[in-house]
Design goal:
Number of helices: 4
Order of helices and strands: HEEEEEEEEEEEEEEEEEEEEHHHEEEE
Number of strands: 24
Helix content: under 10%
Strand content: 35-45%
Structural class: mainly beta
Strand order of the largest sheet: 1-19-16-24-11-8-9
Length: about 325
């Protein structure tokens, strides 16, 4: 075998060995914040908690977030005291503030999240979702930036059983809800710049509930929890969560996301949006003819609760 081939094999094997294994926690977390937002009974509690993993690290669940200090995205449809537009025709775009992301070209982002998002442009946090959990909402963000655009979005599928990714739904307190994001980015002329599709990168950093940890498949940068879907939770105290550390520079243009898996796409029916006005009222921007944005997530729409998404626009 030639020397160059030996080097290639060594590098390949090193990358295989260095696939990042998760840290595990067991049972529910301890609540540290009763709720980031109060919709007067209209919403599920947007609580935050902490839990210590078996290696002694403390994790914030469902995710570290900047909700209380970040600027909030403007409303398309917000039943938590915000605007409830019936269509995009009712949007007064000039009333939406333009956020400076360090550039001169103007853009708009139309976003429907399940549940919570933080939007970074070229490494700068420019907007957070005004509604953390439910009721489901949609938003518009205007900003100025220069190309190439590095779009980075933190997505959190919120939870009621803190530390285990579960909510009270469909007659069970052990129901694992799903996530999803659809977004359409346009320039100042209304021309499509980017839509959510499988050209985005998506990486998982928090997965739960997990009954048998052997269901997780970790290979290179792939964190596959699909086999965990078949497990049934009966005891929260005997249920686990998998956590991976988030690089502090994950949202910056220089961050190397080349090893991250491609985002998977999901249909409107799979996510379940036909009964949500926050989506259906704006089909002309989310399901635009010729620029139909798709719901994206990691490989597990249900169990992966913290998913980071990235896309670079030249």
């Amino acid at each position: 075998m030639k020397k160059n081939s030996l080097i290639f094999v060594a590098v390949f094997l090193t990358a295989t060995v260095m696939a990042e294994q998760p840290t595990f926690t067991m049972g529910p977390a301890t609540q540290t914040h009763a709720g980031l937002i109060d919709c007067g009974g209209k919403s599920r509690p947007s609580a935050v908690g902490e839990i210590k993993s078996e290696d002694g690290k403390v994790w914030i669940v469902p995710a570290e977030n900047n909700y209380e200090k970040a600027p909030k995205a403007a409303d398309l449809f917000n039943q938590c005291g915000g605007k409830e537009l019936k269509s995009l025709d009712e949007l007064e775009l000039n009333d939406v503030p333009v956020i400076d992301a360090g550039g001169t070209e103007e853009f708009m982002a139309y976003i429907f999240p399940d549940n919570y998002f933080e939007l970074y442009i070229n490494g700068i946090l420019i907007a957070a979702d005004p509604v953390v959990f439910t009721p489901f909402n949609s938003s518009v963000v205007r900003f100025k930036a220069d190309r190439p655009l590095t779009i980075a979005i933190k997505m959190v599928d919120w939870e009621e059983t803190l530390g285990l990714g579960m909510e009270d739904n469909r007659g069970s307190i052990f129901h694992a809800g799903d996530g999803g994001l659809v977004a359409h980015f346009q320039d100042a002329k209304g021309q499509t710049v980017a839509i959510t599709d499988n050209s985005w990168k998506a990486q998982t950093f928090y997965t739960s509930p997990i009954v048998n940890r052997d269901c997780l498949v970790i290979e290179h940068s792939v964190r596959d929890s699909s086999a965990c879907d078949k497990q049934k939770v009966t005891d929260a105290n005997k249920t686990s969560a998998a956590h991976w550390a988030v690089d502090k520079n994950w949202m910056k243009p220089e961050f190397d996301d080349s090893s991250w898996p491609a985002a998977l796409t999901y249909t409107n029916d799979t996510v379940g949006v036909k009964n949500k006005k926050s989506f259906m009222n704006f089909l002309d921007v989310f399901d635009t003819k010729g620029a139909d944005a798709e719901f994206i997530w990691s490989s597990n729409l249900v169990l992966d609760n913290l998913v980071l998404l990235r896309k670079t626009i030249k």
